[in-house]
Design brief:
This protein is α/β, with parallel strands linked by helices. Helices cover 28% and strands 23% of the residues. Helix 3 packs antiparallel against helix 5. The model has no long low-confidence stretch (mean pLDDT 91).
């Protein structure tokens, strides 16, 4: 079975609880935005990497890559982390989880901290913009991305366009697409199925649920931060 997990946003303990109720030996895929906001970004990335789970890139991974690259490049100047927009969108919590001193400018962080950041970059840069699975759903190919890309699938070979859409698109499906697109990025109270697409972001990182969607069966599993190991099965179908 294949389970797709919504935006984790550094909520490591919730992730462990969710994986614990997913059937063993299942294929697990993440829709990106596994870092930032929560206190466990480092542990989440290590968990994904250690278990060789699949993950696409989210806009938060993209923002971290760009911020860290610039930060490390300009080590001759006193550039503070707080000057980066990413820092205020959960980046602060991510840096703290990696043991980075966020009060120092770039030319004063230690070599150990530099190596930590370089290793994080090395992993994040391997994440693809989307994954096309060897599965079909409703007679359509299944594609995993961070944001909804179904309307732009015919332009998937245009890296510039597909990057913009896969990372930042906040529009929801309004008609049938040529793929069964499972994505996150835009949170809803429950997993949302609309026009052969599924949004699995249920607000984890904002005090809400973390959810997983089974591609083959349509089953939904969720854990609620306020109720440890509570199992839900809610999916809201619009069309």
């Amino acid at each position: 079975m294949t389970y797709v997990i919504g935006d984790v946003h550094g909520e490591y303990e919730m992730l462990l609880e969710l994986v614990d109720i997913i059937p063993k030996k299942s294929r697990i895929i993440f829709v990106g935005d596994v870092i930032d906001r929560g206190s466990g970004s480092k542990k989440v990335l290590e968990y994904i990497k250690t278990n060789k789970f699949e993950c696409v890139m989210g806009n938060h991974e993209f923002m971290m890559i760009n911020a860290v690259k610039i930060f490390l490049k300009h080590d001759k100047y006193e550039i503070y982390w707080s000057s980066y927009p990413w820092f205020n969108y959960g980046g602060k919590e991510a840096l703290i989880s990696f043991g980075i001193n966020i009060n120092y400018p770039s030319n004063k962080i230690s070599e150990k901290e530099r190596e930590i950041l370089k290793n994080v970059l090395k992993f994040l840069e391997t994440l693809p913009l989307y994954l096309e699975l060897n599965l079909t759903k409703n007679n359509l190919p299944v594609v995993i991305s961070h944001a909804f890309i179904g309307e732009h699938w015919h332009r998937k070979d245009d890296k510039k366009i597909i990057e913009e859409v896969a990372l930042w698109n906040t529009k929801m499906p309004y008609r049938e697409c040529k793929i069964f697109n499972i994505f996150g990025h835009t949170p809803h109270e429950d997993v949302l199925e609309i026009y052969n697409c599924v949004d699995v972001d249920t607000g984890c990182g904002f005090g809400k649920k973390l959810s997983a969607y089974c591609v083959e069966s349509g089953e939904v599993l969720s854990v609620n931060k306020a109720k440890s190991k509570t199992i839900f099965g809610n999916i809201k179908k619009l069309f």
